[in-house]
Amino acid sequence: MVRSALRTALGAGFMAAMMASASAQVLEIGVDNGPTGLDPHLITAFPSFMVVNGNIYEGLTAIDKDLKTVPGLAESWTVSPDGKTYTFKLRQGVKFHDGSAMEAEDVVATVKRLLSKDIASPLASRLSAVDSANAVDATTVELKLKEPSAALLSSLATIAIVPSAMETNKDALQKAPVGTGPYKFQEWQPNGFILLTKNEAYWDKGMPKLAGLKFNIVPESATRQVGLSNGQYALLPNIDAATALQLKGKPNVKLSETMDLAYTLIGMNTSKPPFDNPKVREAVNYAINRQEIVDAALFGAGVPGGPLSPALKSWALNVNQFACYKPDPAKAQALLKEAGVATPVAVSMKVLPRQDIKDIAQVVQEQLNKAGFKVELVNQEQGQFIQDWRNSNFDMFASINAGQPDPDDYFYRTFRTGGSTNVFKYSDAEIDGLLDQARTLADQAARKTAYDKVQQKLACSGPIAHLTYGTLFSAMNSKLQGFDTMPNRSLLMLRNASY
Amino acid sequence: MNRVLIARLIDLVIVLFGVSVIVFLMIRMIPGDAVAIMLGANTEITPERMAELNRRVGLDRPIVEQYLLWAGNALRGDFGTSLWTGRPVSSEILLHLWPTLELTFLALLIGAVLAVPVGCLMAQTRGGAADVAMRVTAIAGLTIPSFWLGIVLILLLSSWAPGFASLGYVPFSEDPLGNLQRMMLPAIALALPILANLSRLVRSAMLDALGQDYVRTARAKGLAERKVVYKHALRNALIPFLTSVGIMTGYLLGGAIVVEQVFAIPGLGRLILGAIAERNYPLIQATILVVTAGFVFVNFLVDFLYIVVDPRVRA
Q1: DSSP string, A323-344
Q2: Rounded Cα distance, B79 and A396, in Å
């Protein structure tokens, strides 16, 4: 009796849920973490990036599925022969979500906002080459650079254009974003969900096809999996191999995969012994067996990788061009002997608190210990790890970094002497010269030659032992059409998706 | 009565002040500050920008000044704004308070209310098959971790009634049925260990009481066993039960972090955890104060109930 009453009640709830979903067509997305804010010029974390990039906001350019830079809010652009003046022709008829038209002055205000001290945007360095921005007319913007910058166009894809009224406003966009994208912000329940609804006035007619996006914040992986299998969520974007393997073959679930731009790495502090000695760093690379890491820690879903992701097909060298990528513990021992360090070399390795990184760190520890090192793993809380990273307070660390579509974005700040994320204190005159030269070259082939040399040198004796590039998955309901996982984790393709 | 109340209020003020100082200092002693964590490990930023961000959220001032500023505003009822979102802390707490209150209420309703008859039954059938079975179940209930139980419940329900929305949270005011269907499983997952714990407690307190002289007297004068148990013995057995319920309520009000994680419920537990992870100082401080006040209040309520239940305490 009670049981049948309960069943009836459940049935009624179920019916109500079905009817609601049939009329609304809001795509229910399950994500593990909520954003810390929505101001596109303040956020750097993936959970925030995923929500705003391409959905709420757009840049002058965009990065497509193949990591090519394509037109965004700028319809076209020209570059002056000296590479120092970029002229952008803006798309016409683009409106912000508040109804105002997007014009050249908004782009100029956006650039100023990003570079302003008051806003203190962590993205400011992406526009460090920009000297000034001017509105030529309502639909033409001119960017003057201090020096040529080959990475500018791809960087611009991550610079969201905001209304000019926001130029000096510090707080408004964190709470209520105003962009030009296919979806507009509706509601944010911290730790609950973020709801975006269709932008009826979107410039790309016929887009978006969905009535809205609801990002449900579901911290527990098992819960997200059940939610996808029972139809409560229709998409779990950017999940790891372990989760994807469990969902593989479930009824009504399909997977989309791509090579991840993000890479796992071992960082080494080159400002103090033993890693101040390039031979010791080379020994680390010979000691590491990357295929074993892929098999043991990534469930086979990944590839060994060098300084650039294999997803960057036009840049990355094949890893079998790096001598040290052929695991050779004996050679590692010999290098340590040559370096004149006392073996076993005792070092500590700080570990980013993520399950995949912890797994990888254990495999690497084992491998290094077999080749003359004595590695102590130090598990850290996130905040502590970040602090030590920023203060160069480590011998070694194991971590994962997001990759960038242009080599200059990554290389210059990481390996150039004094680079802003060169926490390894790495300094090499040859690398500095190549990096300085390559960023001013307009010719693709010439840049490629320079970056080939950089990769060759960094792969074996650089401050980072690049380990693996994982396969990135998204799991979705089989009814969801037109969505693919992108290497940079953008959910830009949701504008084309239908459900 | 009034004197008790006033003494309690003074206690509350002292506790809250102590907690506010401790929380303020401890959260700043954890390595890694709010700005560094927001930026993450591998963000390109110059030290000058870092300093500007610190200034932006007011973390560049001396710590004593920060505390006095915060305490002064808090006394006037202004708990400040969440570091990055700029939303008022009070509204964030309120938003997360409802799910927690509802969960606490439902879990206690199921757990504590069932514990009394179950505990009495165990005591009455002491040593019998029913007692043994219930005790084994109770021990299982105590030892099964709630995150595991929660996931198993979700899996069972999803195979039994696929399509039944059991995850997340919708406010009762918006969709009463949807609210209850989502809260059912987490409430059960929370209630089970409570039921197990409390029924064992009731059992042993009852056994104690049933061995007393007045129970023998009651039986001797020919009272029905049910009356002996529920009217005479139970009342005495209730004191430890109330104490325990009080403590559990206090903990539940602090947010049932594990169950909230598993069922994706935006309650106080996740608010605190998230705030600590991102070093959202104003949010942590205010939330912990609210939770502490809740704990103290519940204890006060329990003290009051002692007086109601046990006339001897009144003297």
Answers
A1: GGGS--HHHHHHHHHHHTPPSS
A2: 41
Q: What is the ipTM of this complex?
A: 0.83
User: Is the Cβ–Cβ distance between A471 and A243 less than 8 Å?
Assistant: no
Per CB-CB distance under 8 Å, the chain B contacts of A189 are 95, 266
Identify the sign of the CA torsion A340, A341, A344, A348.
Answer: negative
Is the four-CA dihedral A128, A134, A138, A141 of positive or negative sign? Answer: negative
Q: What is the pLDDT of residues A304-326, one digit of tens each?
A: 999 998 888 889 999 999 999 99
Rounded CA separation B73/B52 (Å):
24
Task: Answer whether A223 sits within 8 Å of B32, measured CB to CB.
Answer: no
**What per-residue confidence (pLDDT) applies to B216?**
87
How far is residue B200's CA from residue B233's CA, in Å, rounded to a whole number?
16
CB A190 within 8 A of CB B85: yes
What stretch of H or E contains A350?
strand A345-351
| Partner-chain contact A386 B46, CB within 8 Å | no
A84 close to A98: Cβ distance less than 8 angstroms = no
Q: What's the CA gap between A83 and A86, in Å, rounded? A: 8
Mean of pLDDT values over A45-61: 91
The CA distance from A419 to B36, in Å, is 18
What is the Cα–Cα distance from B141 to B134, expressed in whole angstroms? 10
Residue in A97, A323, A113, A397 with CA at minimum distance from that of residue A105: A113
Interval B154-160 mean pLDDT: 85
* Higher-scoring residue by pLDDT: A468, A35: A468
H/E segment holding residue A141 = strand A140-145
pTM: 0.85
Positive or negative, the Cα torsion across B71, B72, B73, B75?
positive
Rounded-to-integer distance, Cα B115 and Cα B194, Å: 8
Q: CB count, 10 Å around CB of B35?
A: 25
* Euclidean distance between CA atoms B13 and B292, whole angstroms: 11
Which chain B residues are Cβ-neighbours of A36 within 8 angstroms? 38, 84-85, 278
Between CA A172 and CA B15 the distance in angstroms is 37
Separation CA A175–CA A190 (nearest Å): 11
Whether residue B102 contacts residue B255, with contact meaning beta carbons closer than 8 Å, is answered with: no
Q: In this structure, are residues A227 and A476 in contact, taking their beta carbons and an 8 Å threshold?
A: no
DSSP A130: E
Task: State how far the Cα of B88 lies from the Cα of B80, in Å rounded to an integer.
Answer: 6
B264: chain A residues, CB-CB within 8 Å: 216-220, 223
Contact A44, A386 (CB under 8 A): no
